[in-house]
Design goal:
With 208 residues, the protein is α/β, with parallel strands linked by helices. The protein folds into two domains: 2-124, Rossmann fold (3-Layer(aba) Sandwich); 135-201, Orthogonal Bundle (Arc Repressor Mutant, subunit A). The protein has ten helices and six strands; from the N terminus they run βαβαβαβαβαβααααα.
């Protein structure tokens, strides 16, 4: 049984999500609260496996609240209406294992929780597509990157492993390794971290 805590300041959202999750036999809702403080108290008392977390709670910065919860539970899935690049990257860097948009289908919400509980990552299809396609086209060597390579690079910068990128893009891990090698060569980087740093300097990635 996967124990889930819902943290969202809108009661109607909490009620709607709870109704969806209660239909899944392998999920158990251990709490449904509206603030960071109430969420932390519930974690201490009920020990959830996954927190479904609204990105922008009153009085809390998105990245900070994600990091706060990520340090106390096995997995956090951000559940938000915001899909801006900066929001996505800030959440993932804060430790979120999933990023789910409000308005997602019921099956997608359940699948996201199951995926992160199993140790995988999950990005809403719309978010993944936006990260891959919403790339800039700067001059210099970075401009030699193909659209696919720029998309892979952005997911590398978001902290995803080759396996997680492969799952997100529905490609083989071998294909992703090929793209990463090509990215390193084209940017003149020795490793992934250096590639991300060089890409950020050249305007290929959103600012942290």
């Amino acid at each position: 049984m996967i124990r889930v805590l819902i943290v969202d300041d809108h009661p109607i959202v909490r009620e709607g999500v709870a109704t969806v999750l209660e239909r899944a036999r392998d999920l158990e809702i251990v709490g449904s609260v509206g603030s960071v403080d109430d969420g932390l108290r519930t974690i201490a008392a009920r020990h959830p496996d996954v927190v479904l977390l609204d990105l922008k709670l009153p009085g809390a910065e998105g990245g900070e609240s994600v990091a706060t919860f990520a340090g106390k539970v096995p997995a956090v899935v951000v559940f938000t209406a915001y899909d801006a690049d900066d929001d996505v990257f800030r959440a993932i860097r804060g430790g979120a294992r999933g990023y789910l948009l409000k308005g997602s289908a019921a099956d997608d919400i359940v699948d996201a929780i199951r995926q992160v509980h199993a140790g995988n990552s999950y990005l809403s299809p719309r978010v993944a597509a936006k990260l891959v396609s919403g790339v800039s086209h700067p001059g210099g060597r970075g401009g030699l990157l193909s659209p696919r390579e720029r998309g892979v690079l952005r997911l590398v910068a978001a902290g995803l492993s080759n396996r997680q990128i492969a799952e997100t893009l529905s490609l083989s891990e071998r294909t992703i390794k090929f793209h990463v090698t090509a990215i390193l060569n084209k940017l003149g980087a020795d490793n992934r971290a250096q590639a991300v740093a060089l890409a950020a300097q050249r305007g290929l990635l959103p600012s942290p």
